[in-house]
């Protein structure tokens, strides 16, 4: 593996060290290791984020651990795992050894989660991403095997010496993602690093070094060696990053998306039905950006962003060209919801997450047509009831989906949706749509019809709920009359 050393000057080292404030817990731990003759260094994202002065970074000056965005501290040490465990005994509030096979011991102290890993100089089998663990003898070799130079910096405790053998500080200043060694070697060892490049592009708004990008293009297929769970986790972090579109573009441009999310590149060149965008792919990225802007202070919202990403994936499968040359995508929301469930299941997302995202995809098109004045109060009630707890997200998704460059049309769509939201608010205030129930409950149905519990009661309840959605609240005598009418029609009573 060819590795180029690009160490900072002494002045740069001192300046970097001044940006890092070490929590007392870290220095306490460093003193224990030093007394036993071992080295201990803070490494990874906490060092990087402190130098970037990212909000809430744990090692940034003046940040209380309780307010930190990232509660984990990662350390590298010359001590072997059994020695680390011995040093933690009596100091840590809890320890765990789930990663001991890879040289990692976990601990907790004063609310901070700590992971301490023995210096490594392992090789990978290049079939799976599992390393063949071999302990190293020095920090530089350990840092050389990390994914990017900006993650290959270290800070000693308790000595507070900044170590940067591969130019991470320079790459931080240049906002560039570069590997410590040859990109092809790094990605052959662990293909997940290619996906991490896209994730960091989204999180940090960094550019990818041309040599790194080219290696990803040439090796994208190797991502197939990685488990779905690992890919899911990186995609999730990418989507909730500060600039998810930057990461998504890298996935598509390098061919990574073809491996685990082929529906996204499939949207290219699929001209949308309004012919107002270059293609559905560009429209989709615009919708994702719009959704990010509409999140407000509660963001990032993964459910909303994933729904924005997937909302039109049914278009390629439903594309049709009419006799007049017009393009249509009838029922693409239904097909898209089914495709979303399939893809998210393959990526091992939870059932609840899949349900929420696919339901938003299925509902995102229902609003169109509201401006023609065809919606009754019944249609509004169904819209609210079908969206249920997702209604606030559905509002944002529908508004995000308006990407027309025609100002008059955009203004009209915005007015129409505002009118719908106002109408929903009015009906909500009058009827409490979040708790829509039939005017008669199961007990009342059984008593009035003189029937025991069973399928007939459920069918009657469902009928009365549909009636409630259609006509709004009914007076008790009218609800009872409708129940008797339905029961006679069904042959339940004479």
TrEMBL record:
Organism lineage reads as: Bacteria, Bacillati, Actinomycetota, Actinomycetes, Micromonosporales
Q: Which InterPro entries match?
A: Bact_CCA-adding_enz_type3_sf, HD/PDEase_dom, HD_domain, HDIG_dom, NT_sf, PolA_pol_head_dom, PolyA_RNA-bd, tRNA_adenylyltransferase
Which Pfam families has this protein been placed in? HD, PolyA_pol, PolyA_pol_RNAbd
Q: Organism's domain of life?
A: Bacteria
Q: Gene3D superfamilies from the entry?
A: Beta Polymerase, domain 2, cca-adding enzyme, domain 2
Taking the record's annotation, the residue ranges forming a coiled coil are 410-437
Cofactor names: Mg(2+)
- Please give the organism: Actinocatenispora sera
Gene Ontology biological-process annotations: tRNA processing
Please list the residue ranges annotated as the HD/PDEase domain.
276-373
Q: What is this protein called?
A: CCA tRNA nucleotidyltransferase
What gene name does this entry carry?
A: pcnB
Keyword Membrane (UniProt) = no
A GO MF term: nucleotidyltransferase activity
Keywords for this entry?
Answer: Coiled coil, Magnesium, Metal-binding, Nucleotide-binding, Nucleotidyltransferase, Transferase, tRNA processing
């Amino acid at each position: 593996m060819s590795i180029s050393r690009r160490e900072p000057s002494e002045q740069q080292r001192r300046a970097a060290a001044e940006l890092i404030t070490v929590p007392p817990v870290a220095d306490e731990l460093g003193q224990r290791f030093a007394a036993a003759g071992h080295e201990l260094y803070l490494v990874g994202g906490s060092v990087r984020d402190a130098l970037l002065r990212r909000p809430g970074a744990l090692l940034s000056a003046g940040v209380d651990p309780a307010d930190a965005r990232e509660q984990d501290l990662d350390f590298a040490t010359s001590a072997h795992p059994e020695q680390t465990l011995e040093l933690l005994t009596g100091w840590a509030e809890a320890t765990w050894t789930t990663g001991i096979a890879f040289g990692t011991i976990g601990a907790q102290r004063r609310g901070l989660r700590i992971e301490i890993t023995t210096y490594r100089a392992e090789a990978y089998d290049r079939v799976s991403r599992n390393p063949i663990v071999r302990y190293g003898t020095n920090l530089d070799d350990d840092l050389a095997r990390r994914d990017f130079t900006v993650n290959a910096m270290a800070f000693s405790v308790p000595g507070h010496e900044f170590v940067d053998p591969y130019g991470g500080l320079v790459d931080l200043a240049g906002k560039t993602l570069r590997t410590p060694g040859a990109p092809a070697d790094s990605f052959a060892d662990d293909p997940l690093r290619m996906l991490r490049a896209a994730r960091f592009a989204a999180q940090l708004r960094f550019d990818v070094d041309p040599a790194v990008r080219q290696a990803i293009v040439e090796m994208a297929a190797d991502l197939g060696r990685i488990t779905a769970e690992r890919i899911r986790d990186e995609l999730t972090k990418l989507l909730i990053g500060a600039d998810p579109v930057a990461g998504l573009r890298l996935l598509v441009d390098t061919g990574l998306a073809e491996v685990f999310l082929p529906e996204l590149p499939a949207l290219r060149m699929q001209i949308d039905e309004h012919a107002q965008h270059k293609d559905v792919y560009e429209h989709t990225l615009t919708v994702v950006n719009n959704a990010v802007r509409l999140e407000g202070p509660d963001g990032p919202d993964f459910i909303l962003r994933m729904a924005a990403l997937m909302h039109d994936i049914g278009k390629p499968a439903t594309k049709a060209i009419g006799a007049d040359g017009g393009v249509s995508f009838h029922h693409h929301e239904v097909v898209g919801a089914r495709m979303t469930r399939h893809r998210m299941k393959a990526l091992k997302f939870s059932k609840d997450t899949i349900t929420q995202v696919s339901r938003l995809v299925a509902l995102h098109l229902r609003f169109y047509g509201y401006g023609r004045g065809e919606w009754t109060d019944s249609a509004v009630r169904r819209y609210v009831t079908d969206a249920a707890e997702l209604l606030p997200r559905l509002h944002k998704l529908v508004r995000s989906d308006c990407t027309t460059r025609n100002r008059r049309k955009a203004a009209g769509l915005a007015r129409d949706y505002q009118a719908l939201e106002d109408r929903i608010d009015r009906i909500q205030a009058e009827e409490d749509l979040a708790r829509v129930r039939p005017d008669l409950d199961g007990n009342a149905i059984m008593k009035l019809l003189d029937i025991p519990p069973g399928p007939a009661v459920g069918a009657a309840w469902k009928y009365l709920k549909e009636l409630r959605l259609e006509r709004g609240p009914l007076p008790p005598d009218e609800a009872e009359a409708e129940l008797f009418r339905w029961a006679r029609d069904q042959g339940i009573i004479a």
